[in-house]
Amino acid sequence: MPTEVIEHRAAASATPRRLTTVRGQQDILFRAAARSGGLTVLTIMTLVGVFLFVRGFDAITDAGTAFITTEAWSPNEGNFGIAAVLFGTVTIATIAIVLAVPLSIGTALYISEFAPRGLKRSLITIVDLMAAVPSVVYGLWGFLWLTDAILPIAEWISTHFGWIPIFDVDGFEPGDPLSTTTVFTASAFIAGIVVGLMVTPIASSIMREAFSQAPVGEREGALALGATRWGMVTAVVLPFGRGGIIGGTMLGLGRALGETIAVYLVISPVFVIQPNILQTGTNSISSLVALRFNEASEFELSALMAAGLALFLMTLVINFGASMVIARSRSGAESEG
Amino acid sequence: MMTELLERPDEPTLFSTHLPGRDGEAPGATKPPQTRRNLSTLHRDDVIRLLGALAAGICTAAWLFTQVMPLRGAVGFVAISFVLFLLFYVVLVAMDDGGPAMKDKVASVFAHAIAMLLFAALACVIIFTFARAFDALVNLNFWTTDLSAAGPIDPLDKGGILHAMVGTLIQITIALAISIPLGVLTAVFLSEVPGPFARLVRTVVEAMTALPSIVAGLFIYATWIVTFGMGQSGFAASLAITIMMLPIIIRAADVVLRLVPGNLKEAALAMGASQWRTVWHVVLPTTRSGLTTAIILGTARGIGETSPVLLTAGYTTYMNHNPFEGPMVSLPLATFNLVRSPEPNQVARGFGAAAVLMLLVLILFVVARVIGGRGPGQLSPRQAARRQRQSRSDVIRFAAREGHVLLDPRAHSSTRRRR
């Protein structure tokens, strides 16, 4: 008899139960509204992307591969390319990130591990506020204060490390008493420092978020085994927050590549590839757009679109890289309460 | 024998084993007197070492600057004294400690120093701006008039930037009126109605956070202004700001909404609430503070962004209340235009506009903390009253549905008072 019952049950469970959700009218409305919100945003965003692609491609197909290799920018004569501005953009962003990464890791570690408990909340607020300081303010500061303050340092670096090609400056003789320091103004170095300071608060607040999520049990475990605070940080917090460090860096890099006004105010634009980072004159894609959009013809506008498209694709790749890294790391894996 | 053992378990008896106590010592063994260890992180030696290294670093840097090398510049001085300070500190620590203790102390001082460096640099940015803006800010007319009557060489007691303040407020209000409902709705959609379509939307939104702000401006410039021929206006600027802010708000809100504990939502659903009620009464109140932060972060970026406004708003010195007609200047754009003037008074006005912009951002943050700073479940008196009203009407509704007699309202209010 019992075997029969079991067989009966097995037969019943072979066909899975059909689960149907019957939603009330309220829910149907809600889901429709939410879906339409999503659809609207999708439409807007796709429109921007598609428009950029279509208009940009006009200019790119016209110029062909010369678009990547040409340094000059005179679209109305058909001679234009993004080699110089792309190089400038990458240079400035690299300098910015080299400065911002140690600064932001240090600050994030300080706030999450070393700061007195009473001070922590206000420090977090200050860093968040710093992230909200408008870029034009950083630009002003870089243009009117930092340029003067940094000239002796740029001169010193060029004097002693001028034998390294990137620190060389044309027209500057270290021994010459008549040489002026004006060759050091408006350089990629200064723009990079300004942008670096600008992106540090954002990068640092993402890193701090990741550090502070390091599990308490593992921290206490490390301390209980006799680790010093720094030992605990290197053994638990940094490995745990690696995703946050990479994610924050990538996000900062994305912001640094797209920064317009701070760079525009600091640099003096040139259309040649300028590998000497301490020397006057550099350029970036976004400041090129800000410089030229106003008197642009229809075709130049499309060339500017193409330059914007190149910048967008670059930041897109970096952003997706960052979100993949963040998604893979352990941080943020504890959403069930 | 047994009773004796039970009575005096501590006394070691002949031929019997005994368990060690909790501290690993045999009970009854004499312990050395314990001294209390100081676990506080700040020791006297640390302070002395730190101050000594600092003094040595600064003095050596001063010696280098004045006697040895012809160096100049305040930033260089600070940088060199900083490096020397770290060197001296490492040497001093190495004299007392070795191994992990030394590493710990050096790392700790590094973290402190880097954080201080950052805060000092940022303080420098802000103090510099306010110092240069001071001359403009102290004039009352700077806050109450527009710039139409004041030329570039007029003194600072003529003209102001009221038109830019109004412009900024109008533009950000329009942008928020579009992006808050749309952004929060989309974020709710992403987290509550999952599926392939939601995944697509999320991917596209994440991609668009990479959109450089100047490209958002360029898009509006090329469509709204060049193709449709609408002319530069405050509304065009608002649209550009919206395109830039929307992905930021959606992404931040999505992250917050995904962090809502699943068991809270499940509890609401298990009580028979519809999905809409769950979202409205559980998900949104729980994430209120996070959502406010998301919106504020988006607003702060949007309000201070110059490049999209530069392409779309146009520059004017006149007050313009109409966002659909004529150029409308905003604070960052006014700053950008004014500081490029060769006249010192115009530059001072530009700095003034930047300072006002920063004050605006600060006020925004404070307001956000006041509105959104309360955690879930903490209600203001008005909210609590509303919640109680709602709850009472629910009780009546349920009772009516089940055909019960309505509760005596007086009995209901007495239960409330007891709580």
Automatic annotation (TrEMBL), chain A:
SUPFAM superfamilies: MetI-like. Residues 86-322 form the ABC transmembrane type-1 domain. Keywords: Cell membrane, Membrane, Phosphate transport, Transmembrane, Transmembrane helix, Transport. The chain crosses the membrane at residues 39-60, 80-111, 123-146, 183-203, 261-281, 301-322. It is a multi-pass membrane protein. It is found in: Cell membrane. The keyword Cell inner membrane does not apply. InterPro entries: MetI-like (IPR000515), MetI-like_sf (IPR035906), Phosphate_PstC (IPR011864), Phosphate_Transport_Permease (IPR051124). CDD domains: TM_PBP2. The keyword Transport applies. Belongs to the binding-protein-dependent transport system permease family. CysTW subfamily. Part of the binding-protein-dependent transport system for phosphate; probably responsible for the translocation of the substrate across the membrane. This is Phosphate transport system permease protein.
